[in-house]
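#dry-run=false #mode=assembly
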Amino acid sequence: MSLYTMQQIIEAAEQKGAKISDIALEMESKESGLSAEEIKKRMYSNYAVMKDSVSNGISQVIPSVSGLTGGEGYRLWQERDKGLSGETILSAASRAMAVSNVNASMGKIVAAPTAGSCGIIPGVLMTVGERLGKSDEEIAESLITTAVVGKVIAQNATLAGAEGGCQAECGAASAMAAAAAVELSGGTPSQAGDAAAIAMKGVMGLVCDPVAGLVEVPCIKRNSFGAAQAILAADMAISGIKSVIPVDEVIKAMGEVGHAMPVELRETSMGGLAATSTGRALEEKLVKKE
Amino acid sequence: MNLFDIIGPVMIGPSSSHTAGAARLGKLARNIFGASFDRADITLYNSFAKTGKGHGTDKAVVAGIMGMDPDDERIKDAFEIGGKAGIEINFRLEDSNREVHPNTAKIQLFGEKSTMSITGCSLGGGRVMIQDIDGFKTEFTGEYNTIIAIQHDKPGIVAFAASYLAQKNINIAQMKLSRKSKGDTALMIIETDEIPPKSVKTDLEGHDGIYKIVLSTI
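#status=ok
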């Protein structure tokens, strides 16, 4: 059983009265030969790594290998109960940056779907799960939902910044997290699809323009936006707001926008923020340091 | 593609192509060489050369040749670990070679009796491709169990290896042959679904046309 579109997966889930993660689990088990239990166990162990990287990154200032960044997640975490955005958004955003900080320091992370966007899914799921009182097992199951949404995006568009810009990395992660947040909240599969579409539409066109080619500026902060946006998209979908453009068409459009992007804006550090005078000066400085 | 290609791999940051992929290339080179070595000459090309330092590409390749996996937290200390093991490591950077993939590394390992040069590239998401072994063009990913054979380019050797694997009930997933010139030395890469027995080395080397077998398992 191979389903290649969100629509097929959503229909299969709704016909059975099941969750997207149930359908994904069934598909994966048939394709890989692994039992459902084994898949859940492996997802659980990935979630354990995610939790470790969150706690490492929020408990201390970890400078990146280049020295360009460090401590963003830690700093925002200190303000989570005071800030204007509210504790849920701030917790998710700080956790997302914390994981991204760990990544930039050569620490251990789970690529989700890539290393550059590795903070969004842990930031959202840990925070939403905590807020809803979900167990780690339930949160790890919702990771299966993020994975199948990511698989559909990979098959019908792209998950690589070099092909599709940041919308394909942080945008995809945000869409994947939004769908899982809906599922954790008890929303329907079709609402999960709407949330993914809404989140992706919010970042459509986002370029990949890392300063000095490093996964730091603006990647770390973009992880926080991806997380915040996923939660907002989930709330919108659960409130009954639909995506006018169906999720599969949004995904396809994202891929097309990515391919239409000039190469300067697709992870080559030739345009965007990387090509600003400050971006260039930092690059120069880092190259000299080497 | 499975769900763990999307949520995963577990890896040391910051980049799946420049760090995790680089470590995998190093580890594959170590496995392919299959013997101890005391010197490694590593050339990083293009994007690996330009942004490698900030991505820890150099550390990751060294960690790989020291046997570490992409999720090993000692990757950042790879130079110290290599130094303690008494391995001389030399780096060369070639930042604008249009002949090769943007993220390419050439790894030459020097052992007591032999030396080998292995070139591969990092394709993204931690996936890699070995493209050249000692001047033989090839293509394999290390995602399968891989038998690497250096052999005489003459009839019957492929059939010999294939029937040997059939006897052991091992399914061939992919296979590739390459040679520098007709009748000379050839390289055969066989990727298998099942893990071949350790005796595959001596069993296949028993054929007078097969000079060397290396087995790299997943």
